[in-house]
Amino acid sequence: xxxxxxxxxxxxxxxxxxxxxxxxxxxxxxxxxxxxxxxxxxxxxxxxxxxxxxxxxxxxxxxxxxxxxxxxxxxxxxxxxxxxxxxxxxxxxxxxxxxxxxxxxxxxxxxxxxxxxxxxxxxxxxxxxxxxxxxxxxxxxxxxxxxxxxxxxxxxxxxxxxxxxxxxxxxxxxxxxxxxxxxxxxxxxxxxxxxxxxxxx
Length: 201
Hints:
The chain crosses the membrane at residues 6-25. By secondary structure, this protein is mostly beta strands. 13% of the residues lie in helices and 43% in strands. The chain has one domain (3-157). It has helices at 6-25, 137-143; strands at 41-45, 52-57, 64-65, 68-69, 76-82, 88-95, 100-107, 112-120, 125-132, 149-156, 159-165, 171-177, 183-188, 194-197.
C-alpha cells in the first residue's frame, strides 16, 4: 500500500463508517432525530474477504501483525483501521490508564510509524507528535511493535521542544524555548551529557 494513498483511505473509511451508521439509525418509521444507536462494538468488514476494515469499540482487541495476535501495551477504547491483509495500520484511541491521554496513530506493517498525542494529569499537560523507526522482522520478534522514537515535537507544560534521537532512542539534539522564554540549542553525547551549547558558548 502506497504511503501517499493513506490519507485518502482514511477519508474513505470515515465516509463509509458515517454512511453505515446513518443508514442504521434511519431504519424504521420514526424520524432520525428520535432514534439513537448505542453499541459496545461496531465492526466494518471487507465484503469480499470478510476481514476487518474498521472497528469502534469500548475495548479494542489486540493488534494482528502478519496474521499473529500481538499483546497490546495497554488496553484502549476508540477506533482502529486495518489494511487489506487484516493488519492494524492505525487508529484514534483513548488508553485506559490514569493519565488522561488520547492518540492518533499510523503504523507500518509491524511498528508504530507516527503518533499525535495529548496527555494530561491534574497538574501537568503535554501534546505533540512522535516519529518512529520501523522495526526489522528480527527486531519485531524481540521488541514487539514498539519502534524507536526518533523525532519528538511537543509542548510540554509551556516548554516548546523538538528532540532528535539516535537509533537507540537517546536524545542527541535538543531545540527548545522554555516556559521562561529562554531559547536552548544543545548537542548531547550518547550518555546524555551536553557537548555543545550553541547559545551559551
